[in-house]
TrEMBL record:
SUPFAM superfamilies according to UniProt: Protein kinase-like (PK-like) (SSF56112)
Protein name, UniProt field: Uncharacterized protein
Alphabetized InterPro entries for the sequence: Kinase-like_dom_sf (IPR011009)
Biased composition (Basic and acidic residues): 299-313
Residues covered by region (Disordered): 299-326
Length: 386
């Protein structure tokens, strides 16, 4: 088989033929049910042990889609559907180009499991942990294809499969253009997939109460960042893109405030940017959700307790001004940042779900703080946690 690729300076010489390491034992065709039963075996039979067969699924293909066959057979990656064998479709006697690819098991179309509610987390923010993982795996699999000098050629939600909790890129198609152009189209298709989710969230929000609306600011921020990518840097952007707040989990969000931002509290340039920003409406301890107001009270109590312990250790009396007494000043954005940093640092001690409360009160806080750090450093380099 000679899987073709579009011509391009990054193309590579392909083998004229390839052989599957799987031996076809039986192939049964039921034309009425249009169903294949294929048993595959790998390796030699061991004396005293029952022979085991590899489970496969049949997938309709075209004989001339050699681009797809090459990717599925030669690229080994958990997010790329792998092909074990290929046969002409014996149920399609009138179509000489009909083929059946016998591929690793898959559960169905990825899009079918991502109704609007499946894309949001506990505070109605996009992404949910599962959807975040799916988007990461789509991009990781796509990048792997690019790194091998190839392209997808037909990336969209309806061509992407999944098995259990793992994304399986599929539906590859050859395109009559250079590899570089085809990879760029892949990238634009990836952006379009994300835009589909954002547009659906907007439509969904139009008919539900305010408290139930889906927050898609992190998704929109990711899309905006992707829109700034230049095509010449396409194969070098993976790590930068995966550091966007959209891909942060609880651990990274906690580390961002407890470590990254906390270290910046002694940076005069950064703190000046905070003081002069429009980070939150003042007083921020009043213009907030009831849950965040409770968090501020918990942090004030925790701060006061720490101050009392320090005073007791020093055997000295405390002062009466706001900072010395442990209370945060709602008119100071510096105190707002310090309060959030303290909450993420001491979330176990104050016994509140700090992450949900902070994000519910300030949906764009990670985007805003990341931008403030980048601005204070006079650079556009990523400042997310590693």
């Amino acid at each position: 088989m000679d899987p073709a690729q579009p011509k391009g300076k990054r193309g590579r010489k392909e083998p004229k033929d390839f052989k599957s390491h799987f031996e076809v034992i039986t192939e049964l065709v039921n034309p009425k049910k249009r169903k294949y039963v294929l048993k595959l075996v790998k390796g030699d039979r061991v004396e005293g042990m029952e022979r085991t067969y590899t489970t496969v699924c049949s997938k309709k293909e075209r004989v001339d889609n050699k681009h797809a066959f090459y990717i599925m057979h030669n690229l080994y990656h958990k997010n790329i559907l792998s092909m074990k064998a290929l046969s002409r479709d014996k149920t399609e006697s009138t179509d000489p180009l009909a083929a059946v690819a016998f591929v690793e098991p898959y559960s169905g179309l990825l899009w079918s499991v991502y109704e609007p509610k499946a894309c949001v987390d506990y505070v109605n923010h996009i992404p949910s942990q599962r959807f975040q993982s799916a988007v990461r795996e789509v991009f990781t699999g796509l990048d792997f294809i690019w790194q091998n000098g190839l392209y997808h050629g037909n990336l969209n939600w309806k061509s992407t499969l999944y098995h259990e909790s793992t994304v399986k890129l599929a539906g590859f198609e050859e395109q009559a253009m250079s590899i570089e152009e085809a990879q760029w189209i892949d990238f634009l298709c990836f952006i379009r997939m994300l835009e589909d989710v954002s547009k659906r969230a907007i439509s969904f929000n139009a008919s539900i109460p305010e408290d139930d609306k889906h927050v898609h600011t992190n998704l929109d921020s990711l899309i905006a960042t992707l829109r700034t990518v230049e095509r010449t840097s396409l194969t070098k952007i993976k790590e930068t893109i995966l550091e966007e707040p959209f891909f942060w989990d609880f651990g990274k969000r906690t580390k961002f405030f407890a470590n990254t931002v906390s270290l910046k509290l002694n940076d005069d340039n950064f703190m000046q940017k905070v003081r002069t920003s429009n980070l939150r409406a003042k007083p921020w301890d009043k213009n907030c959700t009831p849950q965040f107001r409770q968090l501020v009270q918990k942090m004030n109590d925790h701060r006061q307790k720490q101050k009392n312990e320090e005073q007791k250790a020093k055997n000295s009396g405390g002062q009466n001004d706001a900072q010395e007494s442990g209370a945060y000043n709602g008119a100071s954005l510096e105190h707002y940042v310090r309060c959030v940093c303290g909450a993420y640092t001491h979330w176990r001690q104050i016994k509140l779900n700090v992450d949900d409360i902070v994000r519910g009160n300030h949906p764009t806080i990670f985007i805003d703080m990341k931008r403030l750090i980048e601005t204070s450093e006079g650079s556009t380099s990523g400042s997310g946690p590693t």
